[in-house]
């Protein structure tokens, strides 16, 4: 993947007069405000990365861009022919690295419809397995089955990986990681996995996530993943939109080349975007999914942050948004994304920034705002909605106004019937209402489906409920989470839906609080002497560590691992079928409520075993009788009053016989023409208390299990 940018003369800069972005007026151009600033040589005005790097050949500035085009392959060929890197994601979308000086000429290509700067996303087990009935899919108490994700590829796009953690090794010490792509280290994808780690985060987020999804059963601590025999592809990512598109395509291409089903887990997101699933990015990501190709995404961790506001004008007028000053960012910015609801390609709203101090509004001059803030305005090429991105450097705002605690505000004017939604991109403030004032919108935490992952229409979007409120460290101390009060209720941090698109978001809820999983000892912030570590595993001279993390980042890989189990049972499972299974099998309780779907839990709490039965039935109904793992003929659900026998394969017959301790047959059920997904329930009430042997004989195998009737 050698890159060449020396042919700058073949793609030369064209001088042009650049229109200013006037608040309330969308500019007719084929690029966004970030590209506009790149062309002008201006620095970024806020926390959004503009994707610029200095190339060592020619010393020109090179932009990482996303290009929408009528014929993506044609544009990619043109760019590649001039020595520029380009990757086709779909028929209408490609990523590229091109000199800033050549962007205007690129925009003149008739096939190119829009050029934009990538968004940047951010990262958002024992008890988790029990609560989602995954112990009912592994060999363990209550259930016995061969489904462990064998033959399924689990792709994890994240950061903070320990490449050869024991959680990613098989029983012989060989790596279960099929491929690794670490562009942060400047390497191409490799299949020979090195030791060490990517060092890209402080807490080993990617290691923790990947272990929840597909960590090996090391036989000591029980903290293994949902699909412990799945094949892993791990990609340390900077979470830029361009990288994520390329990462996902690489995983999909790898799996399809090997003709294997795959799941991609995405525990990251943003609040920058229309939240409607209509963007070219969303369509391209969905286009990578299909039969045997699934994506699972974290909803986000903004469940109690007032980062959303919306309004419908009942008469001509204006409303105001006022932002808090963020405490957790060293460079204090506010960043707001405003989307009108009209899809007619016209401007309906007028946007006007103001400074707020001592209960006074000061609109300032246009030249004032140029020194500390930006409002980018456009008509979105996908949804045809008007969009305003408002950024301000609060340090400069304070300096220019001479006020220590000055706040940034935005006045939005519209006519009767106009409406909009606005989001603050975390962690850059919240929408607040000043006391004893009117005309200011109150923020809420609704409509906060994470952009970049959960908003992808084909993705299964995962909320978090509390699987635990505490855990025990290796030092013997119990560690509590004060904000997590009740096991079973939605986690306080779990982002709420709905989406503004057609697909119900969230799809389902899974355990995400105080989840114990693998940690990377190579992450800069890791402390191997921390007493709150949950487990330490030794292999020779090496030690491997496990600890607790909390977030929808943990809930998402739990579901991704369960999807791998279902794909093992039915390798052609589609996103639509998976969602339908979740709709019909997810659990309801006093916390979720009885309604079919809601914007907090989705369809309810995931149940891996109930979904597995439906996946087996789908395979039977579609005539696809192959399965990736047929080592055992049945799955056994072993309860105190009944045993359920679920058939994993088609069988010409099945003989289920019970014998007393002295070898006398006391019961028999003989079945003909059994089909996969069929289930037989054995009522233990027909037997007197005692110990029995159950013998199941099918066409190709015999298995015997002990049954205790009390």
State the gist of this model.
The protein is α+β, with helices and mostly antiparallel strands and 710 residues long. A 7-stranded parallel β-sheet has the order 9-10-8-11-13-24-27, with helices on both faces.
Question: Describe it for me?
Answer:
This protein is α+β, with helices and mostly antiparallel strands and 710 residues long. 17% of the residues lie in helices and 30% in strands. The protein has 12 helices and 37 strands. The strands form 9 sheets. It has a 7-stranded parallel β-sheet, with helices on both faces. A hairpin with a 2-residue loop joins β29 (535-539) and β30. The chain is globular and about 95 Å long. The N and C termini lie far apart (66 Å).
The overall pLDDT, averaged over residues, is 88
Name the beta content range. 25-35%
Largest sheet: 7 strands, parallel
Structural class: alpha+beta
Q: Kindly provide the radius of gyration, computed on alpha-carbon positions and rounded to a whole number of angstroms.
A: 28 Å
Estimate percent helicity: 10-25%
What is the first-to-last residue Cα distance? 66 Å
Q: What does the oligomeric state look like here?
A: single chain
Total helical segments: 12
Number of strands: 37
Pick out its properties.
single chain; 710 residues; 7-stranded parallel β-sheet; 5-stranded antiparallel β-sheet; 17% helix; 30% strand; globular
């Amino acid at each position: 993947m050698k890159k060449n940018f020396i042919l700058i003369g073949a793609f030369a800069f064209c001088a042009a007069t650049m229109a200013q972005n006037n608040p309330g007026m969308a500019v007719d151009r084929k690029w966004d405000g970030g590209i506009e600033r790149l062309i002008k040589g201006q620095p970024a005005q806020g926390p959004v990365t503009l994707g610029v790097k200095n190339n060592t050949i020619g010393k020109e500035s090179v932009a990482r861009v996303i290009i929408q085009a009528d014929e993506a392959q044609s544009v990619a060929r043109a760019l590649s022919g001039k020595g520029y890197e380009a990757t086709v994601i779909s028929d209408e979308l490609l990523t590229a690295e091109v000199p800033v000086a050549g962007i205007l000429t690129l925009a003149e290509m008739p096939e190119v419809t829009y050029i934009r700067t990538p968004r940047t996303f951010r990262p958002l087990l024992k008890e988790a397995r029990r609560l989602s009935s995954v112990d009912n899919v592994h060999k363990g108490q209550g259930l016995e089955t061969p489904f462990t994700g064998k033959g399924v590829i689990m792709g994890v796009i994240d950061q903070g990986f320990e490449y050869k953690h024991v959680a990613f090794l098989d029983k012989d010490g060989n790596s279960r990681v099929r491929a690794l792509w670490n562009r942060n280290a400047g390497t191409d994808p490799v299949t020979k996995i090195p030791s060490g780690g990517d060092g890209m985060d402080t807490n080993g987020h990617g290691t923790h996530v990947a272990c929840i999804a597909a960590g090996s059963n090391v036989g000591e601590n029980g903290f293994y993943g949902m699909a412990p025999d799945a094949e892993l592809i791990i990609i340390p990512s900077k979470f830029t939109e361009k990288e994520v598109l390329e990462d996902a395509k690489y995983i999909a291409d790898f799996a399809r080349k090997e003709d294997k089903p795959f799941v991609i887990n995405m525990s990251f997101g943003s609040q920058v975007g229309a939240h409607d699933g209509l963007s070219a990015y969303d369509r391209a990501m969905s286009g990578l999914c299909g039969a045997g190709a699934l994506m699972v995404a974290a909803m986000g961790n903004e469940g109690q942050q007032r980062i959303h506001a919306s309004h419908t004008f009942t008469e001509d007028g204006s409303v105001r948004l006022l932002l808090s000053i963020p405490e957790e960012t060293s460079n204090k910015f506010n960043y707001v994304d405003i989307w009108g609801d009209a899809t007619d390609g016209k401007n309906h709203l007028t946007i006007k920034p103001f400074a707020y101090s001592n209960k006074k509004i000061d609109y300032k001059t246009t030249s004032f705002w140029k020194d500390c803030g930006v409002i980018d305005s456009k008509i979105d090429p996908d949804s045809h909605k008007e969009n305003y991105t408002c950024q301000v450097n609060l340090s400069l705002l304070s300096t220019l106004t001479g006020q220590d605690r000055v706040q940034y505000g935005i006045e939005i004017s519209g006519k009767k019937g106009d409406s909009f939604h606005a989001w603050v991109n975390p962690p850059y403030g919240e929408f607040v209402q000043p006391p004893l004032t009117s005309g200011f919108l109150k923020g809420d935490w609704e409509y906060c489906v994470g952009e970049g992952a959960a908003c992808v229409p084909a993705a299964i979007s995962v909320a978090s409920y509390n699987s635990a409120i505490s855990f025990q460290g290796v030092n013997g101390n119990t560690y509590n989470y004060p904000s997590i009060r009740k096991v079973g209720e939605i986690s306080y941090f779990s982002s709420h839906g709905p989406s503004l698109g057609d697909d119900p978001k969230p799809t389902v809820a899974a355990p995400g609080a105080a989840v114990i999983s693998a940690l990377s000892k190579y992450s800069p912030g890791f402390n191997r002497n921390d007493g709150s570590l949950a487990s330490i595993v030794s292999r020779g001279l090496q030690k491997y560590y496990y600890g607790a993390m909390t977030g929808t980042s943990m809930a998402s890989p739990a579901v991704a691992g369960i999807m791998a189990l279902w794909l093992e049972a039915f390798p052609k499972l589609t996103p639509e079928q998976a969602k339908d299974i979740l709709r019909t099998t997810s659990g309801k309780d006093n916390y979720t409520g009885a309604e079919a779907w809601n914007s907090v839990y989705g369809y309810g709490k995931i149940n891996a075993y109930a979904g597995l039965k439906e996946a087996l039935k789908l395979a039977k109904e579609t005539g696809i009788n192959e399965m990736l793992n047929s080592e055992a003929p049945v799955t056994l659900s072993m309860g105190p009053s009944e045993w359920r026998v679920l058939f994993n394969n088609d069988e010409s017959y099945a003989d289920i016989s019970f014998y007393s301790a002295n070898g006398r047959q006391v019961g028999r059920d003989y079945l003909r023409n059994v089909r996969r997904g069929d289930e037989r329930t054995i009522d233990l009430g027909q037997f007197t208390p005692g110990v029995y042997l159950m013998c199941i004989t099918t066409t190709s195998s015999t298995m015997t299990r002990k049954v205790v009737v009390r």
